[in-house]
Amino acid sequence: MHQAATPSDGDKAKTVPSDGRGAAPTPAGVGRRSVPDSRIEDGAAWQKFIRKIVALIILAGAILITFYVWGIVERHPRTDDAAARANVVGIAPRVAGQILKLNVLDNQQVEKGDVLFEIDPEDYRLVLEKAKAELAALDRQIEQARSTLQRLEPLLPKHFTTAENVDEARTKVTTLEAQREGVVATINLEELHLSYCKVIAPFSGRVINLNISAGAHVTTGVPVFSLLDTSKWYVIANFREAEIRHMAPGSEAIVYLSSAPNQRFRGRVQGIGWAVKPEGEIDLPPSGVPYVKRELNWVRVAQRFPVRIEVEDPDEDLFRMGASAVAIIKGPSPK
Known about the structure:
Elements: H1 9-14, H2 37-75, E1 78-91, E2 97-102, E3 109-110, E4 115-119, H3 122-152, H4 163-195, E5 198-200, E6 205-208, E7 217-218, E8 225-240, E9 252-257, E10 260-272, E11 295-296, E12 299-300, E13 304-311, E14 324-329
Helix pairs in contact: 3-4
């Protein structure tokens, strides 16, 4: 019988233990390449250089954007120190008396020609009737005086009357006719006073600041309430004096209301304020020039001047007297 061959020591040295999957592990260092330290340092330096370039590009872009925005703001001034305005007229009666009927409510929309309130016309009607009665009496006296004059004038050539009597008759006719003209003027005035007992709206708008009721006594020339003209709106925007040179009457403007920030309204500069009340000035009348404070949020700023911007197509449901607004001057100054 033959004996099985025993592996020699040399064969044992060549035998490699298995990893259990039938594949022998790769000896350390076999199949791998080591990266030189110089190449690693070059890659890190290149990445650092790229980061610096990107940072410089971002910084330059930020500077360019800043200058661009600054140029836009400088050429197209913007302010949030603005408010919507409309013309307001005090409704004052032209005759005195007691309010007989009040036809409107506070904040009510009225149309031109609507009767706002009525004053008791009885006193003025009585005065008018008295003047008409005086006129009727004068007409009878004038007719009688003319008849007397016509009767005396033919008698003068025949010496049946004197020239003095004729002159007296003529003077009486002239005097009565002059009195009649005065009474006619009184009648016209009293008819006018009677028509003033009905106070009508001079234009379409909204009643504001109504704090009176029927039965109250009103005085001639003293406003009872106010009427807001809603047919025409404008914005008073206060711009810094250095920004005034970038606008002129007729410049295009954009207006935003704080109550509707997403809705834009177009307008045009109607005029730029030529005077504001200087601080500490006491020689000017109280209502002579507008006053614009030089402090904004407790910070002293440059003097600002009011710029009036007429809104071209206002929304009467959004515009309210005194509403906060933002104004931007868009178009170039007209030449």
